[in-house]
């Protein structure tokens, strides 16, 4: 019988709680959710619920809860399930408590705005003694927590570490595919948020399903170009973390990014909290990365300028539709 592994998920928001729940459902390994809100953690421990973000979901009996970071000293795998812009601060805060052998997994889908760096690069800098990987792909928190069948990609520089970690975290309803391309997985995860905002704009402006299909396909081409320019693989972006996640978040109001795009088109800005929309942070960074690498990304650039107030939606559409004709 193999030795029981210990996993700690940091972050008691919807996605972090859902990941902890799906990991703990298997009951084979010890899983703990580490948060900083003592009242919330105690409520979840007593009620096995997190009604604010996962309404009606009963959390598994095998899942433990704590606010004590000392638990990290026992963890083989640590999943950082906090927003992309908070990953650096969380890594620095928890670094002294980590087991030196722990593998770190980022569950954020974004690019650090301040530095323009991918999150695994940020973690490699802040936690140089640990292997850092990225988990990304199509999966809403509520579906994860309810045990719906979901597949995602997990990328490390080392495919062996990716496979080992994928085996630890995968379960009967959550299948993880190992990848050795953290660049491609993260570019897909970050840019799909930007493109989901664009899809929401298409929805809110009533441009039609055909326009959204064109946007998804051309957006995928943009993802691929940037991933390759940054050292990733185009094939990765055509997988779960790119195309798969874009199809999901570009067509559902469960996605904050999609809802924010709808709100932009309808002028209903109070309906979505922009601070929680990862694509808002990633759009301008993606546009800058495209410029730095000499990559054409007209859709992402248009979204960035709309968000910055430099372009209105009608102007953005006109600009995209009147670009010089090229081959596909």
UniProtKB/TrEMBL annotation:
Annotated binding of sn-glycerol 3-phosphate, by residue:
109, 137, 192, 245, 255-257
Q: What is this protein called?
A: Glycerol-3-phosphate dehydrogenase [NAD(P)+]
Q: Binding residues for NADPH, per the UniProt record?
A: 15, 36, 109, 141, 256, 277-278
Instruction: Return the PANTHER family for the record.
Output: GLYCEROL-3-PHOSPHATE DEHYDROGENASE, GLYCEROL-3-PHOSPHATE DEHYDROGENASE [NAD(+)] 2, CHLOROPLASTIC
Q: Which organism is it from?
A: Martelella mangrovi
The Glycerol-3-phosphate dehydrogenase NAD-dependent C-terminal domain covers: 181-317
- Which E.C. number(s) belong to this protein? 1.1.1.94
Q: What class of enzyme is it?
A: oxidoreductase
Q: Which reaction does it catalyse?
A: sn-glycerol 3-phosphate + NADP(+) = dihydroxyacetone phosphate + NADPH + H(+); sn-glycerol 3-phosphate + NAD(+) = dihydroxyacetone phosphate + NADH + H(+)
Q: Which InterPro entries match?
A: 6-PGluconate_DH-like_C_sf (IPR008927), 6PGD_dom2 (IPR013328), G3P_DH_NAD-dep (IPR006168), G3P_DH_NAD-dep_C (IPR006109), G3P_DH_NAD-dep_N (IPR011128), NAD(P)-bd_dom_sf (IPR036291)
Domain (Glycerol-3-phosphate dehydrogenase NAD-dependent N-terminal): residue spans on this chain: 8-160
Q: Which residues form the active site?
A: 192
Q: What does this protein do?
A: Catalyzes the reduction of the glycolytic intermediate dihydroxyacetone phosphate (DHAP) to sn-glycerol 3-phosphate (G3P), the key precursor for phospholipid synthesis.
**What is its pathway?**
Membrane lipid metabolism; glycerophospholipid metabolism
């Amino acid at each position: 019988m193999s030795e029981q592994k210990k996993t700690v998920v940091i972050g008691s928001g919807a996605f972090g709680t859902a990941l902890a729940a799906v990991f703990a459902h298997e009951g084979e390994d010890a899983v703990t959710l580490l948060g900083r809100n003592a009242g919330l953690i105690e409520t979840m421990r007593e009620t096995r619920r997190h009604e604010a973000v996962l309404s009606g979901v009963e959390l598994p009996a095998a899942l433990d809860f704590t606010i004590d970071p000392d638990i990290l000293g026992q963890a083989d795998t640590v999943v950082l399930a906090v927003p992309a812009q908070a990953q650096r601060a969380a890594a620095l805060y928890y670094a002294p408590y980590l087991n030196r052998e722990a593998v770190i997994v980022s569950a954020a889908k974004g690019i650090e705005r301040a530095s323009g760096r991918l999150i695994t690069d940020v973690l490699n800098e802040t936690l140089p003694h640990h292997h850092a990987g990225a988990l990304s792909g199509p999966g809403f928190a509520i579906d994860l927590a309810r045990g719906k069948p979901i597949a995602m990609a997990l990328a490390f520089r080392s495919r062996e570490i990716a496979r080992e970690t994928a085996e630890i975290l995968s379960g009967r309803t959550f299948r993880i595919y190992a990848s050795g391309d953290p660049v491609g997985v993260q570019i897909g995860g970050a840019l799909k948020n930007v493109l989901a905002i664009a899809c929401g704009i298409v929805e809110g402006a009533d441009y039609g399903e055909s326009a959204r299909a064109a946007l998804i396909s051309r957006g995928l081409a943009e993802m691929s170009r940037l991933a390759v320019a940054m050292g990733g693989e185009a094939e990765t972006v055509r997988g779960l973390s790119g195309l798969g996640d874009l199809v999901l978040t570009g067509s559902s109001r469960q996605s904050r990014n999609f809802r924010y795009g709808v709100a932009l088109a309808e002028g209903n800005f109070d309906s979505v909290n922009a601070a929680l929309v990862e694509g808002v942070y990633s759009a301008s960074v993606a546009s800058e990365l495209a410029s730095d690498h000499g990559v054409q990304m007209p859709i992402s650039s248009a979204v960035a300028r709309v968000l910055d107030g430099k372009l209105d939606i009608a102007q953005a559409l006109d600009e995209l539709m009147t670009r010089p004709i090229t081959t596909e």
